[in-house]
């Protein structure tokens, strides 16, 4: 999708930039790598060359027989420059505009967006010189991807650890998708439901399910990275919230139905990921039920509304609907296929909750994407974020075919 120049500097975290490179490539970006001399003491150029499929830039002067302006040519066609990890030394040099390395020359000659992901010992990170240099870079328009806090390679605990590679790629893609950027869902509104509803029995007890919200969160992250404006209707999700996504709390099936009715008209794409209770207690007891009142307790349940079917019936032309079917057992795939036809949705994502590593709570999922049309794709076990990318790949083409959502 985009041409990225990845600058790698000399620090313990240099090996993590291989992960960053791989994620960027999985997302379709073309990555070219430039390394400082010190970076090559930590990871060899061969790994970056093999993974990127390109020669790695290391020398300021290039090959002696090479005509032209090597130090300017390297960055010329790139859409974005990412320096990861960025050492204290390189940050100081960039802040001063020094160009005595290929990486420094590329930086100062590059007119596009630059993101810097620092990684260093806590004392180095906290040093006033370092903080002043970072402030200077910010003033020059550079985006700093703050390091995480935690156990560092030198045994100390504190800020300085390179941010998570996926978070770094998210920051890159958010920047690419910013106004004027290239995100394929830029200008589109994506509505995601996530988590699991809880239907109260009394003031403290409920009928619930094991959904953590991770799959919905992954779709929200992926849609945001593709430039969409994202709203998440969340049912009891205890995961970090992002500042650039709007959240609507909907703890019960009824609250989720109301929230979806309110949000759906403006959406271009709805991904109904939440595990919404099929049944709820007919009556919610006042206060807390007293266990000394009876040896047995029967809770009568009634059906909840089918939110996806209701929204499908109200959809306007051009709205794209993605449903989830967490089924159990071998007949589940047929039920998921049937669900897609019956409910009139474009794509149904099936997962088999009976299979270890699929569906609830964990970081991974094993899914089959059914639709659009007759398409069906059974995917191996992969992270929920990778699943989200594949789901959006399937649904995005339909969004592209539709006129953008009407603002409320
Ligand atoms: C074992 C070792 C680990 C290092 N780790 C880091 C680090 O994590 N962050 C950092 O800023 N510097 C680190 N350094 C220091 C840099 O490698 C050094 O400042 C070097 O000059 C950086 O060069 P560059 O910015 O041109 O890549 C480390 C040095 C050694 C020997």
Compact overview of the structure:
Helices cover 34% and strands 23% of the residues. The protein is an alpha/beta fold. It is elongated.
Mind sketching the topology for me?
Layout: E1 3-8, H1 16-26, E2 30-35, H2 39-42, H3 45-52, H4 70-76, E3 80-86, H5 88-96, H6 102-109, E4 114-118, H7 122-126, H8 128-139, E5 143-144, E6 148-151, E7 157-161, H9 165-177, E8 189-195, E9 199-200, E10 206-207, H10 214-225, E11 229-235, E12 246-249, H11 253-263, E13 269-272, E14 279-281, E15 301-303, H12 307-314, E16 320-327, H13 332-343, E17 347-352, E18 364-365, E19 367-370, E20 376-378, E21 382-383, H14 384-401
Parallel strand pairs: 1-2, 1-3, 3-4, 4-5, 8-11, 8-13, 11-12, 13-16, 16-17
Antiparallel strand pairs: 6-7, 9-10, 14-15, 17-19, 18-21, 19-20
Bound molecules: flavin mononucleotide.
What would you say this structure looks like, in words?
The chain contains 14 helices and 21 strands. By secondary structure, it is of the alpha/beta class. It folds into two domains: 3-177, Rossmann fold; 189-401, Rossmann fold, CATH 3.40.50.10300. The chain is 34% helix and 23% strand. Mean pLDDT is 90; it is low at 403-408. The protein is elongated. The two termini are 31 Å apart. The strands form six sheets. It has an eight-stranded mixed beta sheet, sandwiched between helices. A five-stranded parallel beta sheet has the order 2-1-3-4-5, sandwiched between helices. The longest helix is centred in the C-terminal third of the chain and has 18 residues, at 384-401.
